[in-house]
Write a structure and sequence with these properties.
Elements: H1 22-29, H2 33-41, H3 48-61, H4 67-70, E1 79-84, H5 90-105, E2 109-114, H6 119-131, E3 136-139, H7 147-154, E4 159-162, E5 173-177, H8 179-192, E6 197-202, H9 208-222, E7 228-233, H10 239-250, E8 260-263, H11 266-278, E9 288-293, E10 306-309, H12 312-328, E11 337-341, E12 344-346
Helix pairs in contact: 1-2, 1-3, 5-12, 8-9, 10-11
Length: 351
């Protein structure tokens, strides 16, 4: 106890000027100490107006939670948390299955959460997993630049990023696929088979992964005289979105219509194939289509889809092995460990 009656060094209390306590912050902000704790550790559980009032009070009092109080402490149960962007996309299902298989080999359980492409749901899922004191997190984030991810890293939560790596993970551990190379091998196949009007269907304006694939396509087009490239922007990569993009392409005049289509994933490509078939266009005679992922459905589509294969289960399996290594030595976290897996072109009937 300090001479002025305030405590110092206790968990959850401040180490700033005057040893301000969490209770003092709560009293001045007109909330409970638990609400202050939530603002610091689970901000998305607190209404925005309340959160802003608490943060303003923290700044006024120069309250600084001790690092020890906020440090992550895993539980005794051997459990890993997996937070995926959207289980509606079979790609993420395969990543999770690959992770689960390796975890089972090590007698480790997994808790899988689905964010449904909703950043707020993702934050709630991450809080839930941390509260259950899993040994570490494997995450394919919705929002790759989320400050929430950096907050968890600062607390010492062992974390491995899968498939999606934002700027906050530059000093973390991650396993990804070389998307630029994936785009390049798709474009090279179209150029080598005589296509001179190529369109990429996807959303590079919002997805760094699609942006990387577009860069790979551009790198090939720049080296190929007479080849034109256009981008058909979408707002997602679902089958329905692929159908809509396909219909837009069918309305283009034959002399201006692209003859080679590269879709940002297989779901877009499968939707586009449906539209082309309904419009009476022949694939690959009238136009060739290449997808990305090599989902199981791709081999049985009509025609069978040429696609860029991602090693989906290997992504999940590699992430678990990395997380087991990281959780044994949390101090190893700052040492950058970034694994890049290679895609491959699977040539079928559509291109």
């Amino acid at each position: 106890m300090n001479p002025d009656g305030t405590s110092s060094g206790a968990a959850g209390q401040g180490g700033g000027r005057g040893s301000v306590t969490i209770r003092e912050v709560a009293a001045l902000a007109g909330v409970s100490a638990g609400t202050v704790s939530n603002v610091l550790n689970r901000p998305y559980y607190v209404k925005e107006a309340t959160r802003e009032r608490v943060l303003q009070t923290i700044e006024e009092l120069d309250f600084q939670p001790t690092q020890k109080a906020r440090q992550f402490r895993p539980g005794r149960e051997r459990t890993l948390g997996i937070a995926v962007a959207n289980l509606d996309n079979p790609f993420f299902v395969d990543v999770a299955l690959g992770a689960e298989e390796v975890a089972r080999q090590h007698d480790i359980g997994v808790v899988i959460t689905n964010s449904g492409y909703d950043a707020e749901v993702e934050n709630q899922n991450l809080d839930l997993l941390v509260q259950h004191r899993v040994q570490g997190l494997i995450i394919s984030p919705v929002d790759e630049s989320s400050s929430r991810l950096q907050m968890l890293q600062d607390r010492g939560v062992p974390m491995v990023f899968v498939d999606r790596v934002g700027q906050n993970a530059t000093h973390g551990w991650s396993v990804v696929v070389d998307d630029e190379r994936g785009g390049a091998i798709a474009a090279k196949h179209l150029v080598d088979t005589g296509h001179r009007r190529i369109t990429l269907v996807g959303h590079p304006h919002t997805s760094p992964k699609v942006r990387a694939r577009l860069e790979g396509v551009r790198s090939v087009v720049k080296k190929s005289p007479g080849v034109q490239l256009e981008v058909l922007e979408t707002d997602s990569w679902t089958v329905d979105t692929g159908r809509e993009a396909g219909w837009q392409i069918t309305k283009t005049l034959p002399g201006q219509r692209p003859t080679g289509i590269i879709c940002a994933n297989d779901l877009l490509a499968l939707g586009a194939l449906q539209s082309f078939s309904s419009a009476g266009l022949r694939v690959p005679k009238d136009l060739a289509v290449i997808g990305y992922d090599d989902l199981e459905w791709s081999a049985v589509s009509t025609p069978a889809l040429t696609t860029v294969r991602q090693p989906r289960r290997l992504l999940g399996a590699t992430a678990v092995r990395m997380l087991l290594e990281l959780s044994r030595d949390v101090n190893a976290k700052p040492r950058h460990n970034h694994v890049v897996l290679q895609p491959e072109l699977v040539v079928r009937d559509s291109a």
